[in-house]
Amino acid sequence: MNRIIFSMLVAMTFFCASAQSPITLGNSNMPSGGDTLRYSNAKLNSIGSFTQTGASFSWNFSTLIPSGQGIRNFKVAFQTPYAFFFFGANEYGEKIADTIGQNPFYFTNYYNFYKKQISPNAYVADGVGLTYNSFPVPNYYSDKDELYNFPMSYPKYDSTTFRFSTITNTQVPVRYSKTGYRVTVVDGWGTVTTPYGTANCLRLVTTQYSKDTVKANGFPAIGFLNYQRSYQWMTLNSKIPYLEISGAYNNGNFAPNQARYRDSVRTFVGIKEYTDLSGVSVFPNPATDKLFFSSENQNTINFEMYDMNGKRIKSAAAIYVNNTLSYANISDLKAGVYMIKIMSGGSMRHLKFIKE
C-alpha cells in the first residue's frame, strides 16, 4: 500500500510540475508551406485589460467580440510567382494583396517572404515580392528582421537590427526603405483564454523602432519614424499568435489599432471577411490636400483617421467622384504620419499614409 501511495504521489508531483512549467517554442511551431490559418478580428472595446503579466499567469479574453475573419495562407516559395528569387526548403511566402497603388504606378501579387533560419536560430522576414508591368520585382532585407529568436522560453530578452529596401531602378517609380531594430521580451507564461479556447502560452511584447523613407522619382525623399508594438500570446499549436494586440508606440504610449485571435469558422450576419477590402487602394501617398480611394466594388466608403498616438481626428464618408473612385479632404491635417480605418460593406481595413 505504501509503495502504491508513494508511486501516486510521484506521479502527481510530476504532473503538477509539468502543468506549471512554461512551454518552449522553436521553428517547428512557426507557419510552414501549406498552412492555412484562420483568425478573427476583435472589436477593440472588447479587449479589456491586457498589460498584466507574470509567471503562471491566467489571461482571460473570453469576452472578445469578433467583428470579421481573415485567413493567413502560407506557401512554399516555389509555389509563388517569385520562386526563382526566394528559394529553399525553409522559405515561405504569404500573399498580402492582389494590387497596391493606382494607375499608372501600381504593383500586383504582393507577397511577404519568411524563412526558418538555422544560424542564428530564428524565424525571419526575408523579403517582399512585387510585380510591376508584368515583371517580378524581388526586394530583400540586407539585414534580416528576426521576428522570433529560438529557443523561445521564459524569461527572454532579444534586441536585433534590420534593414530593408525596395530595389533602386529607374523603371520602378517609388523606393521604400526601412532601417532600425526590434526588441522582444518574453515577460510571462501561463494560460490564455479566448472565444476559440484555452491553451498554454508564452506572452511576449515585441517593439519595432524603425526609420522609414519613401522616395518617388522626381521628388525629394520623405523620412519618418515608425514605432510599432505588438503584444502576443504564443502557443505550441496555433502557428500564428493565439492572440495579438498591435498598434503604434510613441513617447512611451501604446495605442492599439488591431486585435485578432486564432479561430475557427464563424458565421457573421452582414460582415464579410477582411480580405474583401484588399482591393481598396489609397493614393497618392504622400498626399497634400486629397486622399483618394480606388475600390473594386461600389459600396459606400466611410473612414476614420487617427494620429500616431491613437487619437481619432476625423470621421466621415468619402466624397465620390464616380462609382469606384472617391476621396477624403485632408487639407486641414498637419503634416505627419496617420492611420486610416476604411470601412465598406461591413468590412474594414487599416492603412498608413503621409500628409505633406
Notable characteristics:
single chain; 356 residues; mainly beta; Immunoglobulin-like; 2 domains; 56% strand; globular
Distance between the termini: 81 Å
Report Rg: 22 Å
**Which overall shape is indicated by the principal axes computed on the Cα atoms?**
globular
Give the overall average pLDDT: 85
Folded structure, characterized:
The protein is mainly β and about 350 residues long. It has two domains: about 25-260, no CATH class; about 275-355, Sandwich (Immunoglobulin-like). About 5% of the residues lie in helices and about 55% in strands. The protein has one helix spanning about 1-20, and strands at about 35-40, 55-60, 65-75, 90-100, 105-115, 120-130, 135-150, 155-165, 175-195, 195-215, 220-235, 245-250, 255-260, 280-285, 290-295, 300-305, 310-315, 320, 325-330, 335-345, 345-355. Strands 1-3-4-5-6-7-8-9-10-11-12-13 form a twelve-stranded antiparallel beta barrel. Strands 14-15-19-18 form a four-stranded antiparallel β-sheet, with no helix packed on it. A hairpin with a 2-residue loop joins strand 4 (about 90-100) and strand 5. The relative contact order is 0.13. The model is unreliable at about 1-20 and about 270-275 (pLDDT under 50).
